[in-house]
Design a protein that fits this description.
Layout: E1 2-6, E2 27-30, E3 33-35, E4 70-72, E5 77-81, E6 84-85, E7 91-96, E8 103-110, H1 114-121, E9 127-131, E10 134-138, E11 140-146, E12 149-159, H2 162-179, E13 181-185
Antiparallel strand pairs: 1-7, 1-13, 2-3, 2-4, 5-6, 5-9, 7-8, 8-12, 9-10, 11-12
Length: 187
């Protein structure tokens, strides 16, 4: 078993078009067209980029590509109500079978912010893990109550194949980088 734990202050991540590395992924804008990630429920607003016309009186000898690809990253987030990010950072415990064929992640949220807004925004319908690859969903979500008042939420996500495990670990890597989590292996 292993877990991710919060380690304190966050470092803001900034990316500029000049800062794009070959390992970057996400939505890529090239020549004013959008290449969306398939199977994503992310709904955003379409954007258009103005064409850049050279103001030079000289005609270049060979055509130049004036448009640079821009990578737009989706902030990794957890949601209990679709469209409402959970602000509380959970403790996450991971287990995996010895042969690596399946595994489980247990999210433990103490005093989640969803309790403050669930009556206004909607009902808790599951745990949604959202990043630039798409959405991972788990419906195994249980609330903890102490003296009749909500105290926390425990959500379980079961991964039945190595492919699901790898996808979850890519999400957790992005989420932990964004939120200051650290991987601690059980001793």
């Amino acid at each position: 078993m292993a877990c991710f734990r919060s380690i304190g202050s966050l470092t803001p991540l900034t990316h500029s078009p000049r800062d794009v590395s070959p390992r970057s992924s996400g939505i890529v804008l090239t020549s004013c067209s959008v290449h969306p990630i398939t199977r994503s429920t992310f709904t955003g607003s379409p954007i258009t980029l103005p064409r850049v016309n050279p103001q030079s009186s000289q005609t270049p000898s060979k055509p130049r590509n004036l448009l640079l690809p821009i990578t737009m990253m989706v902030k990794p987030s957890l949601q209990f109500i679709q469209g409402t990010d959970e602000m509380t950072i959970p403790d996450v415990k991971l287990t995996r079978s010895r042969d690596g064929s399946n595994g489980m992640a247990l999210f433990n949220f103490d005093q989640p912010s969803v309790f403050d807004s669930s009556g206004e925004v909607g009902e808790i319908t599951g745990l949604y893990m959202i990043d630039e690859e798409g959405v991972i969903q788990s419906t195994d979500v249980n609330a903890r109550f102490v003296n009749g008042k909500p105290e926390g939420i425990v959500a379980k996500h079961v991964m039945r194949t190595p492919k699901e495990w790898d996808r979850f670990m890519r999400f957790m890597e992005r989420y932990s980088d964004q939120n200051g989590l650290q991987f601690v292996k059980k001793q």
